[in-house]
Amino acid sequence: MANALVVIPTYNEIDNIEKIVRNIFSLQKQFHVLVVDDNSPDLTALKVKELMEEFPKQLFLEQRTGKLGLGSAYILGFKWALKREYEFIFEMDADFSHNPNDLIRLYNACHKEGNDVAIGSRYKTGVNVVNWPMSRVLMSWLASKYVRFITQMNIYDTTAGFICYRRSVLEKINLDKIQFMGYAFQIEMKYKAYLSTFKIVEIPVVFTDRTKGESKMSKGIISEAIFGVISMRIKSLFKTLDI
């Protein structure tokens, strides 16, 4: 059995899902993949089921009844992994904004170098983002700077969604106490890992905006992150933040 699971949330990713799965399974390191699909109208789940016939021991699917949010999809995936024997659990997008080849780099950062969390970082060595409009690059970069300032975490890409967690991190964090399900989910997970003194490293990656499908970003998600960070920081100062 593989010791690494890649959790991929999907909503209308029919144009990307087969290619991303095949790319992951072509890597020299063996990974398993769990797709968590939010009842995609474009029948993404049906395509995954077809692929499962070809990869019955590597590819898995959890179907949900509606669009329930990125954070809850990952939490489902984390709990699914913890019920099994995976030692390294990954977050990854379906749209190729995250390069599948970088999975091995994140894995090695934890497995070989002894880190507990490896973040695929867009901002560790400058701004490594391709095909985003300047307004969105600036918004994302400023958001990470803002979060870093408020939380005092020494992390350049605090909102990154390409991550490898060692099993012990997800066992330590109370997944039932995660408050945020949107953009702020990524921040909350990193902050709780940081407060728990896990060893966190950033691995520079190039983030390439999707060429197929539609972005799921919204103003409400960004607002959640801005105000959620302040709330988390205050609770941590008063020792009332559930970890």
Automatic annotation (TrEMBL):
Species of provenance: Halomarinibacterium sedimenti
Keyword Glycosyltransferase carried by entry: yes
Keywords assigned: Glycosyltransferase, Transferase
Family: Belongs to the glycosyltransferase 2 family.
Pfam families in the cross-refs: Glycos_transf_2
Domain Glycosyltransferase 2-like: from-to ranges: 6-173
Protein name: Polyprenol monophosphomannose synthase
CC terms in the record's Gene Ontology section: membrane
GO biological process: glycolipid biosynthetic process
